[in-house]
Write a sequence for this structure.
């Protein structure tokens, strides 16, 4: 895990190395100051030697300034290193997610990925900064102070050594108890983000069904779980403070008691006792700081594991060593294809799929809900890999193509039409970033979108809100179709993407396709038979299998499923008339 995370330090290695060096310098100066103070007291003030007082006073001032300078530089470099490390972590995670297949994304969930890029990265950032400064400062200060205390008086210094095992055992027990709780906390954060995300995404549904109280209750329950878990973890960690205080005051009392006896016996000076008490505070404060670092590391360990899990995840869809970069045409062939989201042959959602499509043909796919129509077409641009069998495009197995080359030639308008924040032009240019305004207007006319765009106040510069909430479902669908057409694909897949437009507009879109892109293979998934009845071939899906294939007239004569759908829609049409 640590090795995986440290790869993201990169250009911040220099400041990450310089921070501990300045921290060590600061620690050295802070340890020397009590030693100089003892000399000032014993040889200067006690003897009334003004020259020595001035000399040691100057040395103390210089030492304090150097310590302050080292501390300031250490703080600056630590901030740069930790913030840069966090920036790189987020960047690496985001880039990694872009490479994921749908199955990889399904494994983590959207809310979990958001938590990992925000809360978890922030925990790692704070922990990294503490490691660079406090995790270096605490042991270095403790070692230097211990050396100086043995130099001043070895007998009293053994009191420090006696406290270390007590603290070590206590800290080990506290860390071991708290770590599993923090792991549960961050898993629960995923659920909290999921609730918030769902609520915001579906706010119109929540309000239309008056379910605000239900959503409030869901949020409250998960918040209460996080509160209880954090409280439990904090109650465990709070034992750290009393153990530290016990050791600190125990050492001070011991040193004061034995030190005063040594002063009375003449084997120790007042200045030496004062420096020993200062070293006591420095050593035990170092231990306390070290315990704080261990607490932070305990909290961030769970976060680090979750981040490393994303960074080490290997996408199951990769280019082979010698990929094909050219898609010759829009021919499509499925050969004995089986598919399971779980990659389990006992849980297939597509079974024994075989068919061929010639380039330029229009193919309709129809079937009931859950018949795996969408799963079928998602294998063509290789959003998922077939579990068994082969999918060929242009006579080449899709696994042999360069992914970018394949997907550049397969335009897909999914069931869930997504528009991003930005103008209509910016959204359309997702299809082709260099498209001219004339190209945008042309494809929008093909998708029957130009008319409603021209009626908007800013026309093609109209701003689209996140998710396309300020346009209707039908308008959103037509914009997504236009965006797909900009790619000038060899294969165009419409996955129930005209369901929100009226039959007249649907017919105009299909007519434009037939006239303007005759060489493009068109696959139309639809619930309405009117959307596919003019197709060259219609595939009827049922239970993950191909039930029948044929033209509209052929299926109307021979296929019961197609006949039932046709009759039900005709009755609905007659009833509306």
């Amino acid at each position: 895990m640590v090795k995986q995370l440290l790869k993201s330090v990169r250009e911040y290695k220099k400041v990450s190395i310089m921070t501990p060096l300045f921290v060590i310098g600061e620690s050295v100066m802070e340890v020397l100051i009590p030693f100089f103070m003892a000399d000032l007291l014993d040889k200067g003030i006690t003897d009334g030697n003004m020259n020595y007082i001035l000399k040691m006073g100057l040395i103390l001032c210089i030492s304090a300034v150097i310590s302050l300078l080292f501390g300031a530089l250490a703080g600056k470099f630590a901030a740069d290193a930790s913030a840069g490390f966090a920036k790189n972590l987020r960047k690496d995670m985001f880039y990694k997610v872009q490479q994921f297949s749908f199955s990889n994304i399904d494994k983590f969930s959207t809310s979990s990925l958001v938590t990992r890029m925000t809360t978890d990265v922030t925990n790692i950032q704070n922990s990294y900064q503490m490691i660079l400064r406090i995790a270096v400062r605490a042991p270095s200060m403790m070692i230097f102070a211990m050396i100086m205390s043995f130099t001043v008086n070895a007998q009293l210094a053994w009191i420090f050594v006696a406290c270390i095992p007590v603290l070590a055992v206590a800290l080990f027990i506290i860390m071991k108890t708290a770590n599993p709780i923090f792991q549960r906390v961050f898993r629960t954060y995923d659920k909290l983000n999921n609730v918030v995300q769902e609520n915001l995404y579906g706010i119109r549904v929540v309000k239309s069904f008056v379910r605000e109280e239900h959503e409030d209750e869901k949020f409250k329950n998960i918040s209460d779980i996080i509160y209880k878990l954090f409280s439990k973890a904090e109650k465990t960690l709070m034992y750290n403070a009393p153990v530290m205080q016990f050791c600190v005051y125990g050492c001070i009392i011991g040193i004061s008691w034995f030190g005063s006896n040594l002063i009375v016996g003449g084997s120790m000076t007042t200045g030496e006792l004062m420096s020993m008490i200062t070293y006591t505070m420095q050593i035990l404060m170092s231990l306390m700081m070290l315990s704080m670092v261990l607490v932070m590391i305990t909290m961030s360990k769970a976060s680090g594991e979750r981040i490393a899990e994303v960074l080490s995840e290997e996408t199951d869809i990769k280019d082979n060593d010698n990929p094909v970069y050219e898609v010759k045409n829009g021919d499509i062939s499925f050969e004995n294809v089986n598919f399971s989201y779980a990659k389990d042959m006992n849980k297939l959602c597509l079974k024994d799929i075989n068919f061929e499509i010639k380039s330029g043909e229009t193919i309709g796919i129809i079937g009931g809900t859950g018949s795996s129509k969408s799963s079928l077409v998602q294998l063509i641009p290789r959003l998922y890999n077939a579990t068994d069998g082969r999918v060929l495009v242009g006579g080449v197995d899709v696994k042999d193509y360069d992914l970018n080359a394949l997907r550049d030639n397969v335009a897909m308008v999914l069931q869930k039409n997504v528009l991003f924040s930005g103008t209509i032009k910016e959204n359309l240019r997702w299809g082709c970033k260099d498209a001219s305004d004339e190209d945008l207007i042309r494809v929008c006319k093909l998708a029957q979108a130009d008319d409603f765009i021209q009626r908007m106040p800013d026309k093609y510069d109209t701003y689209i809100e996140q998710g396309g909430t300020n346009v209707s479902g039908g308008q959103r669908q037509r914009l997504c179709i236009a965006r797909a057409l900009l790619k000038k694909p060899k294969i165009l897949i419409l996955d129930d993407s005209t369901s929100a437009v009226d039959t007249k507009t649907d017919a105009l879109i299909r007519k434009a396709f037939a006239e303007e892109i005759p060489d493009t293979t068109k696959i139309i998934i639809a619930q309405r038979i009117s959307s596919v009845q003019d197709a060259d071939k219609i595939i009827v899906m049922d239970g993950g299998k191909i039930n029948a294939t044929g033209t509209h007239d052929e299926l109307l004569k021979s296929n019961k499923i197609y006949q039932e759908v046709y009759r039900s829609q005709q009755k609905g049409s007659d009833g509306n008339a």
About this structure: The CA atoms of residues 330 and 359 lie 4 Å apart. The chain has a mean pLDDT of 82. The radius of gyration is 35 Å. Residues 50-99 form the longest helix (50 residues).
